[in-house]
Write a structure and sequence with these properties.
single chain; alpha+beta; four-stranded antiparallel β-sheet; 6 helices; 16 strands; disordered N terminus; phosphoprotein; metal-binding; lysosome; Synaptotagmin-7; lipoprotein
């Protein structure tokens, strides 16, 4: 039976009200279900997205392994060091924005870190007491005897890892060959210009030498650095008694070079200090004193003074010198010299210290030299690194004079 709405009982809800209520109830239920689904999806998708980002940024991912490179430098090679120095935090752009640093300070710290880390022998230098024991290199040669022609054959082949003797950081090596005890008659190789690993491949013949006399001789090889304007600098020597060699066939040897018998051991020592001031772009060299200098005069003494050269790359920039101390093998100088050195040039700077003997009637004699830089011998490098590590402090050290 159909009832008109107006005829419905007063206490019962109308059909329109019930329909609206049903629609609202269904809508709320759908909304709750959809919200739950959305939250679940967001959690799942967010976790998955985060995981994918972490995977891409992880060095252990396949992409990270394929892009990773290992650079191996040859000995003596140089590489621009972009890693932060030990003990310093890595660079961060946010830090640079909040805590700006001066460009001069950055440059000083960069050069200091680079020189401290790139200096040769950084792990072994601490064991040295200031006296350099640098490697003098080695030489390859062959020896043999021809019995039919009574001829001793010596072939000078090559040398490796020779020390630098020139301002340019290289040497001009050649070899002298003796059959000791005869020092009057010698043979020489050609000079190899600017080469620390020279190849000579030159053959020398000692003809008319009876075998009985050959085995009484000592083959002596002396490697020197050729100098056009002054005395040639000895690099090292090798001696081998021929009675200990099988001369029936050519024998090839690799021998380490030893300090020459008239070399640095008898030239004396020099005490000096270095003081580096990065804000003033200067280095102060204080020549303090010397001891046990080699006697260069007939009377068994010397008249020493000290020359200090500032070198940039292979160019002489500035020279200073002390007063002459008359007839003294243990002079006390206590003279300081300041050199202006821009921070950006510090890595290419060398301070060359030469102890001289003053001679009134002839050319002054060289007693010994010291090369101070971040790429010199172990003792010199140690002093240079100590100077960089302790700015504005005078760092003193004894140095053995070299030929």
């Amino acid at each position: 039976m159909y009832l008109h709405p107006e005829a419905a009982p007063s206490g019962a809800p109308s059909r329109d009200v019930l329909l609206v209520s049903a629609i609202i109830t269904v809508s709320l239920s759908v909304t709750i279900v959809l919200c739950g689904i959305c939250q679940w999806c967001q959690r799942k998708l967010g976790k998955r997205y985060k995981t994918s980002l972490e995977t891409v940024g992880t060095p252990d991912s396949s992409r990270g392994r394929s892009e990773k490179k290992t650079i191996k430098l040859p000995a003596g090679g140089k590489a621009a060091n972009t890693a932060p120095a030990p003990g310093q935090p890595p660079h961060d752009e946010s830090d640079r924005k909040t805590e700006p640093r001066s460009s001069v300070s950055d440059l000083v710290n960069s050069l200091t870190s680079e020189m401290l880390m790139l200096s040769p022998g950084s792990e072994d230098d601490e064991a040295h007491d200031g006296i350099s024991r640098e490697n003098l290199g080695r030489i390859q040669f062959s020896v043999g005897y021809n019995f039919q022609e009574s001829t001793l054959t010596v072939k000078i082949m090559k040398a490796q890892e020779l020390p630098a003797k020139d301002f340019s950081g290289t040497s001009d090596p050649f070899v002298k060959i003796y059959l000791l005890p005869d020092k009057k008659h010698k043979l020489e190789t050609k000079v190899k210009r600017k080469n620390l690993n020279p190849h000579w491949n030159e053959t020398f013949l000692f003809e008319g030498f009876p075998y009985e006399k050959v085995v009484q001789r000592v083959l002596y090889l002396q490697v020197l650095d050729y100098d056009r304007f002054s005395r040639n600098d000895p690099i090292g020597e090798v001696s081998i008694p021929l009675n200990k060699v099988d001369l029936t066939q050519m024998q090839t040897f690799w021998k380490d070079l030893k300090p020459c018998s008239d070399g640095s051991g008898s030239r004396g020592e020099l005490l000096l200090s270095l003081c580096y001031n990065p804000s003033a772009n200067s280095i102060v060299v204080n020549i303090i004193k010397a001891r046990n200098l080699k006697a260069m005069d007939i009377g068994g003494t010397s008249d020493p003074y000290v020359k200090v050269w500032l070198m940039y790359k292979d160019k002489r920039v500035e020279k200073k010198k002390t007063v002459v101390m008359k007839r003294c093998l243990n002079p006390v100088f206590n003279e300081s010299f300041a050199f202006d050195i821009p921070t950006e040039r510090l890595r290419e700077t060398t301070i060359v210290i030469t102890v001289m003997d003053k001679d009134r009637l002839s050319r002054n004699d060289v007693i010994g030299k010291i090369y101070l830089s971040w790429k010199s011998g172990p003792g010199e490098v140690k002093h240079w690194k100590d100077m960089i590590a302790r700015p504005r402090q005078a760092v003193a050290q004894w140095h053995q004079l070299k030929a």
